[in-house]
Amino acid sequence: MSIMEYNGGSVVAMVGKDCVAIASDLRLGNQALGISSNFQKIFPVTDRIYLGLPGLATDVTTLRERFRFRVNMYTIKEEREIEPETFAHLVSSTLYEHRFGPYFVEPVMAGLSKTPSGGVKPFIAATDLIGCLNFAKDFVVAGTASSKLFGVAEGLWEPDLEPEDLFETISQTLLNAVDRDAFSGWGCIVHVITKDKVVTRTLKGRMD
Amino acid sequence: MSDRGKSSEKGGELVFGETIRVPTVRRAIHLSITRPLSFLILRFPLRPIYAQQYSFDPLSQSLFIIASRLSSVNLAFARSNSMPDMVSIAQPQQRQFNPYSENGGTILAIAGADFSVIAGDTRQSEGYSIQTRYAPKVFRLTDKAVLAVNGFAADGNMFVKKVRQRLEWYRHAHAKDMPLRAIARLIQTMLYARRFFPYYVYNILGGIEDDGTGAVYSFDPVGSYEREACRAAGAAQSLVQPFLDNQIYFKNQTPAPGTSHPVHLPLSTVLSLVIDSFTSATERHIEVGDGLEMYVVLAKGSASVQGLGNIRGIQELTATDDGERVFVIRRELKKD
Amino acid sequence: MDHFPTNWGRPRNDAYDAYGTYPIAQRPLNSPNDAFTVGIQHTQQPIVTGTSVLAIKYKDGIMMAADNLASYGSLARFKDVQRLHPVGNHTVIGAGGDMSDFQHIQTVLDELMIEEFSAQDGHNLGPAEIHEYLAQVMYARRSKMNPLWNALLVGGLKDGKRFLAFVDLLGTTYSASTLATGYGSHIAQPLLRTAVEGKEDTLTEEDALKIIEQSMKVLYYRDARSINKYQVATITASGTSISESRHLETAWSFAEGIRGYGAQTQ
């Protein structure tokens, strides 16, 4: 038994045209036994950054608080909101601090960063459990359904999707991937982040 | 020390190579054993039936000495457990020949209303090494049956050889090609015959049934099988199958009000989906790539034949004039 | 470089093989042993071993090479062993792995050729048939859990058709325009592919020989179970020929300055 599969769960994030989306399933399990169908693993970090933490549930909870603390400290010291790139490095270094006794999570980040001209630039990133950063231009996946997510996303994703199309793409990717994964599913949640709003939708999924 | 040796049944802490407490059943040798185990091994050779390993019984907290191989080198190893697990050349080598290997690649089949598409990549690998960029995994069995095999290549080739032999015998006995559903059952029987030394192969059989419908049968290595509309197997099964669920079965999609999803897709759509599946799998899986072979089996008088004319590099393999037709389409995949 | 961080800064322990390199060509055990396997001697491991065999297609046919060393573990035990073997007039096989198993294969193939010759039916076995036969023998032996511990290359030319294929102790087969066994498949195969792929029909014998010699040299520099003495076989329309042993010219002056390579110990 791998500790990464102990509670199950998956997260995916995708880049669109001036928008990003991040989505996860809602299952919490104890190995094969389903425990909860409303276990959140995506958390807002700022108004424009969301963080997904699939992996060992106890570490999900711990890290959520830890990142909240570290982002608050950053905001107080710097007197400004953290940028997605900076936050990604914060996540990376926090995890690498525990290189030889890691937290068993694979964080996925999605956000919009500010450009000098006052616009926004989509940003997604993911790390492994010891903080190796992966800045992808298209999509990132993590969790027990990651190989399935890779397959479907590689087939469905295309560049420059508008927010509504991006929502459809990420939703279809996640739903179909988790339906083939015994450790993920039991409903999904999707956040689409645009310049002036975040749209959050909860999806019905197969409950088997 | 010798006192502790005598009160063996009461249990206590066990230290490798120092004190050994022996259960009552083997009292004959337990008294005054306070010297290293190696001494004991030398003086008390045990019957060969115990010549396995040592085992530890947590209930009686006793070490049952059933090890003849436990040498002093071994004990030194047991003491210095500060090192992480590594391959030690100090231990006796007790390894067995592994008759299996895994040669990567992916196969896929989709059934249409009156056609079947059976596809596979052509890379053969072992570990991180590409053995060859062209080793076919998809084989024409008859004009209405195509078999794709994936897993351990040596088993796969042998299995195809044996299936073909059985089909030839059938042809000689009945003067016709075996029907698809019968080939499916034959494959199940042949796989199950090797239940206790299985062919390490995932099979997908595609073709045309006697009623003229396209069919796909998928098998596990020991012969469980079912008829399906589509199936992916092999290294990138987990990447491709959910994509197919979505695009072939329209899973998680709701049709527009007043409409319904098509039950069977046209050949051109199926071929595009197959190519997309393999380019996606090639992109994200190291064992998939190099080349793609897509076999198309058409039912008697299938209208899909019109669409095939303008496909680049298509090659017809039909051998009989029964009416079913077999084609192969080859495409390049990325080689990295 | 030791990849186990817990070992860093600790004294080295020569009793441990950190890279798991012993024995040379063993595969990991994938199933637990049960009581019934005790006492049955099905399995084995290679004892006297040959290392890589290389082969390429070129304009006139196939060129194959193997060095003359048969090792006993890390001991360079037999330094004048021929690992290339002609079978009939159109085929040469080259073997890596256990040399006694290879000698058995030679015997079996020689008997087969005599039997086929005796039939006098106008057919003689070409490289494709010999490869198929070998594949069946190797697969049958692995299925009896009593493998012939070799990786074999079969090269030949018959009726104007070049043939080059591989078969190993598992019965795995494949074909390509360049092939290599053992360490050669990791070290030489990339070199051979860059040199040969797409040029199979234009490379002259001289070109092919240069490619082979270069690859054997690289192998000799890096494969500790190799030797600088090797033979080259060519199979062309005029039949098979296996060269006398050749010597590789190598230079080791570069190693002087490298710690752990040259003479100095610290």
Automatic annotation (TrEMBL), chain A:
What cellular component terms from Gene Ontology apply here?
Answer: cytoplasm; nucleus; proteasome core complex, beta-subunit complex
Recorded hits in CDD domains, A to Z, give: proteasome_beta_type_3
The record's annotation in InterPro entries points to:
Ntn_hydrolases_N (IPR029055), Proteasome_beta_3 (IPR033811), Proteasome_bsu_CS (IPR016050), Proteasome_sua/b (IPR001353), Proteasome_suB-type (IPR023333)
UniProt feature coiled coil, ranges: none
Instruction: Give a yes or no for keyword Transcription regulation in this entry.
Output: no
A Gene Ontology annotation in the biological process aspect, one of them, is:
proteasome-mediated ubiquitin-dependent protein catabolic process
Q: Give the location in the cell.
A: Cytoplasm; Nucleus
Keywords, sorted A to Z:
Cytoplasm, Nucleus, Proteasome
- Main location class: cytoplasm
Which Pfam family, giving just one, matches this sequence? Proteasome
**Any keyword Isomerase?**
no
* Family, similarity comment: Belongs to the peptidase T1B family.
Instruction: Please describe the quaternary structure of this protein.
Output: The 26S proteasome consists of a 20S proteasome core and two 19S regulatory subunits. The 20S proteasome core is composed of 28 subunits that are arranged in four stacked rings, resulting in a barrel-shaped structure. The two end rings are each formed by seven alpha subunits, and the two central rings are each formed by seven beta subunits. The catalytic chamber with the active sites is on the inside of the barrel.
What job does this protein perform? Component of the proteasome, a multicatalytic proteinase complex which is characterized by its ability to cleave peptides with Arg, Phe, Tyr, Leu, and Glu adjacent to the leaving group at neutral or slightly basic pH. The proteasome has an ATP-dependent proteolytic activity.
Q: What is this protein's record name?
A: Proteasome subunit beta
Q: Please name the source species.
A: Collybia nuda
Specify the taxonomic lineage.
Eukaryota, Fungi, Dikarya, Basidiomycota, Agaricomycotina
TrEMBL record, chain B:
Q: Which UniProt keywords apply?
A: Cytoplasm, Nucleus, Proteasome
Where is this protein found?
Nucleus
Asked if the keyword Chloroplast belongs to this entry, the reply reads no
Major site of localization recorded for this protein: nucleus
Superkingdom classification of source: Eukaryota
Keyword hit for Iron: no
Gene Ontology cellular component annotations, sorted alphabetically: cytoplasm; nucleus; proteasome core complex, beta-subunit complex
Gene Ontology biological process terms, A to Z: proteolysis involved in protein catabolic process
Pfam family membership, one? Proteasome
Record PANTHER family: METALLOPROTEASE TLDD, PROTEASOME SUBUNIT BETA TYPE-1
Q: How would you summarize the oligomeric state and partners of this protein?
A: The 26S proteasome consists of a 20S proteasome core and two 19S regulatory subunits. The 20S proteasome core is composed of 28 subunits that are arranged in four stacked rings, resulting in a barrel-shaped structure. The two end rings are each formed by seven alpha subunits, and the two central rings are each formed by seven beta subunits. The catalytic chamber with the active sites is on the inside of the barrel.
UniProt-recorded name of the protein:
Nucleophile aminohydrolase
Biological source species: Collybia nuda
Q: What is the lineage of its organism?
A: Eukaryota, Fungi, Dikarya, Basidiomycota, Agaricomycotina
UniProtKB/TrEMBL annotation, chain C:
- Top-rank taxon: Eukaryota
Output the GO biological process annotations, alphabetical, semicolon-separated. Answer: proteolysis involved in protein catabolic process
Please provide the record's keywords in A-Z order: Cytoplasm, Nucleus, Proteasome
Q: Which residues form the signal peptide?
A: none
GO CC term, one of those recorded: proteasome core complex, beta-subunit complex
Name the InterPro entries on file: Ntn_hydrolases_N (IPR029055), Proteasome_beta4 (IPR016295), Proteasome_bsu_CS (IPR016050), Proteasome_sua/b (IPR001353), Proteasome_suB-type (IPR023333)
Subcellular location per the Swiss-Prot or TrEMBL entry: Cytoplasm; Nucleus
Keyword Nucleus present in the record's keywords: the answer is yes
Family note: Belongs to the peptidase T1B family.
Role this protein plays: Non-catalytic component of the proteasome.
User: What PANTHER family does this protein's entry cite?
Assistant: METALLOPROTEASE TLDD, PROTEASOME SUBUNIT BETA
Per its record, how is this protein called by name? Proteasome subunit beta
The major lineage groups are: Eukaryota, Fungi, Dikarya, Basidiomycota, Agaricomycotina
